[in-house]
């Protein structure tokens, strides 16, 4: 298969493998001199007339430009500038059809010519040797020169060699082997001197050892013109035999030097730089004349035009204009080809402009370029392999490209195909081989791009994955650290003091038990009027002192123990303490009440002690509050809700104390006791205290409006509700006073008048509050379901109660009911979970086949669940408490009181009914009438009481 | 008799020596991990789209190595299935892509930025971090990094993400394959016998 490369024994010219001899068709256009091209109305200059980055426009639509003015600068290292081919105005920068086989549009500068052809000021250098090579390269770059042979590679890159590169041969390609094209032929004939000057500039830049011009032997005039021009200089003219594709870069290098450029290498690797003859001409114009590349010689040929020949065409001239300039016959025109018949491409749009690489336009008739025949199967004749100038196996490439076997095609050096079309030319089966190769090359490039993208995507995916994992690990590490810290703290604190506290607690419990027993004994003794009652009492006092001491010790121990414990623990301890203290206080109050009821002497004392306890409890509460405020890590929602809940509780306590006091006072008054006034005074004091607390509560509520998320959130503070509560209270007090007064009157008590006066005062008070309530309602019209204005008969006590009840916000109640239900469910669930977990833990402990860690985990889980259940229960309790408090606030009565009232009313009704039954026969009509009306009144009262109770219960969502 | 014994002894000796050598080599040159997974992963298109039911291409490669069918990659198309068939020496399969007839059309996500509310959901969904943006600020897709997996489309609460077909540019355009035997080549084929 290997033919000798040195078939020609001539020392001057070598040979390359393959090649074909198509009809030359050069006679059509090579007989007339180069004529000036048309000056069209509009020039279209694609930003990508060359290989590499598109140029960057320097002008905007509307700008007037002069001939030779740079209108786009190089857009990158491998790029070329664009200049205005004539004077005119930039009318648009936008997509236009360009010289591309895809037929796609690309961004172009559109220049409306003005016909003046006005040059920008320009000047060249007479002696280019005055310029440094760098300056010359710059000049070439800014003149926008790109390879004029067809590829369009920016010349400035090719001539800008590094210091290490040594150029053996500079080859000027003047072969022009493709049929039809005569542009270089005519250029050499007419501008040989300019071309030689251009070559000299290239020599100056590249400093080659030899300079060779390769010209095919079918251009004798051009050869003689060049030979004449370069007489006396070191440029060798080599005449090569006519063969297609001698003009290919690798082929001409082989022809002139015998060197073969290897696969994947550039001519520079063998020390050769190749330039087209047209490029040399453009370089001379740019350097010596200062004229950038704005026009080129293009062959217009084919049987479709009347005046075929070569034209000096302005870049950007639409092919349409060039055709009409050459006298096109539209009827005869079948195909329009840009470039030669072998390597060019069909134009589908005559608006495509002539660009820097356009060496030929063929306007072919159907006879000239007939429709290609149908593709036939490959017969493996091997003709294509014989003519392939790149020494490939086209039949194999075809086979693999057809089957999309890109890898095998690449193994057969698909990428070294120069797409010359020699194989397709000789193919007896008319297989469009080149298109198969182009397709396969595109697919290979696409695959490479896809692979690159896939690698990038994989990298990014893995980076993201790594990032997410790292974040997770960090979180886990932080969690572990936290757990570890907690465990450490627990083990630190759960030491000696725990035993102490337990022991102390036990002692305290025992002491209080003893005290209680003593008290009981004393009471019994008193009831029996035993003699030793006083003694027993003293004993009880002593025991009480002991118990108190024990309690104090426990408290102290507790206070001391959690010094190192976390804030949460402290809060819990404080809570417990507060609970203890308040229960102690309650007990004391109870005792005091009892004492008062029994008219004991030490009642005042007891009360005092109760007060002391209360003060202590308050102090603890304050401390707890502080601790909570200082413990932001405490379980969520607790801190926000607590002050309000705390205050509420206090208010509740205070008001119940006040009520108890009032009751006591009333009783005392009823009994005509001496200390009634005193009691009343103390009740007043308590009331004042309760009021203060209420005010505080109100304030707290106002300050905690954002306390929403917790289940135990108090309802938003409402001045109306407050006022209503006050009205309720006032009227209740008034009613009580009236009742007392009536009783006193009935009993002919002395203080009846005083009591009535007080009742009047209370009534005035109640009226005042009512008025205020009315005002508030009027000023708060947006309040849902505002109660109607107060009745004008405030004297009727029954009228006020339902009214204040009616003002309860049903929405609020429904919400609370919902919340209650939710909380109940939550608590039940939590409790169940806790029980289950606890049972599991116990089972595990019994089995003894689990590790300590697992047990610990389970224990933690149980604790957590228990905590959860407790929180839920607390919240539920708080809510119930709150509901009760609200009932109190709305009705001025306790739930208990309401219930009692209802029951009392019922029983009174029943009594009256029985009395009526009894007297029906015996009494007169008048008394019966009176009794009947009384019965009716009682019935109404009972109904009201029932209703009030029901409403209150329902509204607060306390329905069981 | 002794010759037989000598032969047996020699064979046993050889067996022992080679056994020792092989045992040592299998320890010394042990291959960490499963190299087939890497090879499969290289063939997969790395869109990380999850259409195979795995969270990314590598998990699917691992699943294939474990024995899962290798035809569940719609973005890779039949070519990937065939390549995997070759690699694994398994039975030939056709691509399992019901309802994904346009899977081979390259697409990228496009966020209509006027409508974006800045919820960052698509950012979290993107397997290759190709979406940039911040909370309450509009997001946008880095087209060069987008693999067109459309995992971001579903989480968008305002449906402002479109999958846009990638149009060929002058740089990515390639010649199409000739119609084949019995067909006239495209009239753009300029190579003719003169």
From TrEMBL, chain B:
Residues involved in [4Fe-4S] cluster 3 binding: 126, 146, 149, 152
Cellular localisation: Cell inner membrane
Essential cofactor(s): [4Fe-4S] cluster
Assigned EC number: 7.-.-.-
Segments forming domain 4Fe-4S ferredoxin-type: 107-136, 137-166
InterPro entries: 4Fe-4S_dom, 4Fe4S_Fe-S-bd, 4Fe4S_Fe_S_CS, Elect_transpt_cplx_RnfB/RsxB, RnfB/RsxB_Proteobac, RnfB_subfamily
Binding of [4Fe-4S] cluster 1, residues: 49, 52, 57, 73
UniProt GO cellular component terms: plasma membrane
Record has Transport as a keyword: yes
Biological process annotations from GO: electron transport chain
Protein name as annotated: Ion-translocating oxidoreductase complex subunit B
Originating organism: Alcanivorax profundi
Designated gene of the protein: rsxB
